[in-house]
Structures are given as structure tokens and as C-alpha cells.
Specification:
It is built from 16 helices and 37 strands. The chain is an alpha+beta fold. The strands form ten sheets. Strands 13, 14, 15, 20, 25, 26, 33, 36 and 37 form a nine-stranded mixed β-sheet that branches. It is globular.
Amino acid sequence: MLLGVDVGGTFTDAVVAAGGRLVTAKAPSTPHDQSEGVLAAVAAALERAGASEREVRAFAHGTTVATNALLEGTGARTALVATEGFEDVVELGRQARADLYRLCAAHPAPLVPRERRVGAAERMGPDGPLRELGAAELAAAVAAVAATEPEAVAVCLLHAYRHPQHEQALGRALAEHLPGVHVSLSHEAVGTFREFERAATTEIDAALSPLLGAYLRRLVERAAEAGLPEPAVMQSSGGLASAAHAGAHAALTVLSGPAGGAAGAAWAAQAAGEPDALCFDMGGTSCDVCVILGGAVREAAGREVGGRPVALPMLDIHTVGAGGGSIGWRDPGGALRAGPRSAGARPGPACYGHGGTEPTVTDANLLLGLLAPGAALGGEIELDHEAAAAAIGALAASLDLRPLECAEGIRRVATAEMVRALRVMTVERGVDPRELALLAFGGAGGLHAADIAEELGMTRILCPRTSGVLAALGLVVSERRRDAQRSVLLSGEALSGEALEREGGALAERARAQLGSADAEVRVTAELRYRGQAFELAVEAATDAGALREAFHAAHEEAYGFCDPEGEVELVTLRATATEPGPDVDAGAAGAVGAGARRSTRTATFGGEEHETAVLTGEPAPGTAIAGPALVELPEATLAVPPGWAGEVLASGTIRLERS
């Protein structure tokens, strides 16, 4: 029996895979202590499965503790140790404006203020120390750090990615003199060059690790008390790590929740026979977008999260503030807006009955008949139509609109925000969305899928039976993974087969050792550029230097439309990824629970027009035909099928629609 639990902004989702079937459940998230919502969701799922905690063999968890702390700037009290003269590297950044045409816009403030930055009297050069970090200099740096009374320390010295000995000495001294204080060393946390990105990532790792570590220790204890195994934690890269490893390196988990959804989407797309898909996960608070090509989620070597660079491998996911809880409002110019502010889990949308009074996307969908009045969400929430009507009515009056017009407007504005995010991940990167299937998931994804597909010119929609909890399912099927990366900066004769084999082999062994498996499968990626370029392209590494150069030329041609076969190629960074495959969950199990759905009708509004609409409540059996206008009320999500769309339920339980 396998268990996956994903924490969202509004609901915590659980999936149990056992005996050839999938059992799902939801519980309201508990922001004050996520572990409460986790265990409530687990209890609900196991009760539905008729099983006990002792039967669970593996437990995987996606958490937003690190994400929320990063976005809110609520990390631990952190000090930064940098090479003397470079203490302000994070604040200086790249000297680029936050917004080109808004001079008042600013980058987020560094997590470590100026008074807690310490300079170490040392300096590294390409061939080793130019200024040794002696005993006196080491003691002075440690004393200066201790004077700041930190809860965590980030250490980022110049060129430590190549020569880490001074960072290692500081790490040992800080551990000895400041027991109980978390220490993050840049060569361990990041391992690549570019001082700003490396320092900013190490600062994030140090500031978030005490919070995440404390949460995971609490969750491990509560899981043990309940008879559950120790949870593995989803990393931003899409692989699972032990709770101890994740707690010690929180920067690895800043996209933990969305990564679970991407992994589940890749599994569902493969099971549906659509290895190329554009995926969007619309939950209660946000919408996460990713692209699956050839059955794999596109990856990135690093990206910004909350305006801060994170120079670590992660799935290429783009997030916008458009979810079921996004609040509709009137801007100063009199225009209707939706989000990014969200009603969250408490009080939530007005229709949740928890005291919310502001109109949200969920309230709009309820008023339009796309959600059923009195329907239960998360096992505890019954949708209140009157409360939704009152909230929408107040906003409609301020805009001089009828309530149904206002509700339709909120839907359209939210859809436009999601379409913009989907264009960022496709059109702006040279991918034609019309060639892909649109895979919609999350509690609210299916309600907006057809509108989004129409906007993007897409003709196929996939909605998994487990779409409302697909991120939790992704945790169940995910692989275990460790990444090791290092900037090597090789070019000319130094870029040889011998060097590739030596550096790649060392990284592969390091990744296997971190994973704890000598037999783990390892893939090595090389990041290369032409001499004089500022950034790199990633290709699969080879042990033959000539073949590696040819692979880079081809990648450059594909990305930019040209290549320079005579240009000098530089190998900048090597990355080794060690993986162990996740459990084999039968795709057919997705349709095996309670196959069959009750049929009824009700009036629903599509595109501003009311229609008598067929409603299927439950889990339609494989082969069931569906034609719009229709609503499919799955256990944790609803799929809206407008007129002009039709399809059927596949053997995996996924609903596949096509535009007629």
C-alpha cells in the first residue's frame, strides 16, 4: 500500500494505491501546522480504503512550508559569511531593474540584512588560495557571526565551487562554536559558479532549513505515532528525498508541491497515450503550468521563485495567482479583475461558509451552475449558493452589471491569466500549443479547460479521474532522486574525453552515494556555450569530446536557428542525476474504484448562455460517451464540457475530449 499527500493552499490531498486500485480523499489545509491537515487527509483516505496505517509501505509528501516562507520572507534569523569585500553580493544582484518601465518597482530585499553579513579574510584564485584563511582569521569570522545571534548561517566564499577548503573549515568551526545553528555551505548547497545566484541560493537554503526541518521532524514523529512510515519529501526536481535530507537543504523543496503535480501529469499523459501535453494545475490559490514532451516534464537548471534566484535543478514550472479562491475585484479604473489575492483556506470563498464575504472564482462557478449548490468539497465543506450570490451581487452592483454577467466576467478574467501563463511556457519558447493535448487537473482545472483550449486553438483535452488530487498521485509514482553538479569551465584541449570521463564519473559516484544506491541509474548533463556567450545550453553528456561538441552545435541550431561549427565550445557545468524508479502503479487502477456515475440534469451557463446540461456524478466507467453541454462531477473535481466538445472515458479512467 502506497500513500501520497500533497498540501495545497486550500485543501490537502491524499491518494492511497493498494490492491490494484486508487482511493482518494481531501481535507482542509491547516496553515498554522500543515501536519494536522496531512494526517486528517491520510485518515480520510485510509477510511475510504478500509485499511489501517500499519498497512502503508511507503509515504511520499509534497509540502509548501519552504515555498510559503520564501514568498512571505519569514525564514530563520540568518547570517551570511562571504569573502571580505563581497558581503553585499546578494543585495547588488545583477544591477537589473525589477521592472524596466516602473522605476518604483524593487527586487525583494535580501533575506540577510547588512548588519548580519560578515566578511572572511580569505581569497581563492583559479589555482587555489591567494590569501589563506588562517586560525586568527577563522576565529574572527566565527566570533563576528556569533555576535549576530543567528539561527542559521549561509557561507558563500569566492570560487568555493572549485576550491571548497575554506568553506569546509568555516563549516567545522561554526558547528563547533554554534551548536544547534544550521549551516549551509555554498559548495554543498549549489556547487556552481555565478556568485550572485550561488550566494542567493545558499542564503535561501540557510534561512528556510530550520523551519522546514522543524516541520518535517514534527511530521515524522506524528506519522510514527500513527503507525505510518517516515515520509519521503518531493524536491523541486521532481524526485523524492528523505525527510532528513530535505530538512537539511530546504532550497531543494521550494517547488515541492507543483513538482508533485507535474509528475502526476506526466504519468497520466503517458497512460492516456498522449506523451506531449500542456498541463495546468488550477487549485484554490494558484495555477501551475508545465510542458510534457516525450513523456517527460521539461527541466531547468535554475529559475526565480518569488523574485529570488534558485540555482538548483528543478522542473520548469510557471505559476500565476489564479485559482478557485482568487478574489474578484474592481480596480481604480473601474475594470473587473480576478486575483492574485486569494481567499485561501480560511475563510475561503464566500460559498464555503467560513466567514468569507469577497467574491471568488469558485463563487462565480457556483452561481453559473457549473458547481452544484450543496455539493460537498473536501469532506467538510458544503457550497452555499446564497452566500455566493450575495458576494457576487455586491461586486456586480459596483460594476453596474447583472450578477450572472459579473460571474461570467470573473471566469473570463481568471481564464485570461491562465492563458497568459500557458503562452509563456509554449509560444514564447517556440512550442506550438495546438500540437499538444491540454491536460487539466487540480480541483478547478476541469472547469476552465475548454475555455483555455479555445483561446489557444487546442483541440484535445485530458482530464484524469484523479485530477483533483493528481499532485498526490504524482508523489506516489515518483522516483527517488539526487543531483550533484559542479562548474568545471573546460575549453580547447582541456575539453577532452579523459576530462569528461573523470569529472562526470566523480559526479556520478557522488550522486549515487547521496542516494545511497551503488546501482542507481545515472544520467549526466553538460551545459555548454560558445566562447564569449553569457549563458549555456544543456545537452546529454558524452565521453567523447567531439560528439559532445556536435551535440551542442545541433542544440544551438534548434534553439536559435544557427550554429557556429568553427566556434570554440566551452563546457561550463556538469550535472549528474542518480535515480531509482518509483513504484509501478497500474494505470488501469485509476478507473477501478466505483466505476459508474449517476445521471441527472440542471441548468448551467456556458459562454454567457444558459443550457439544459447533462450531469454525471461519480466515476464514469471506461467507454462512457460524453457530449456537451455536460458536467462530470468527479470525486474531487468537476469537468465542464461546453457545447461543441465531446469524448469518452479511456481505460485509465481519464476523460478525453475533442472539439468538434
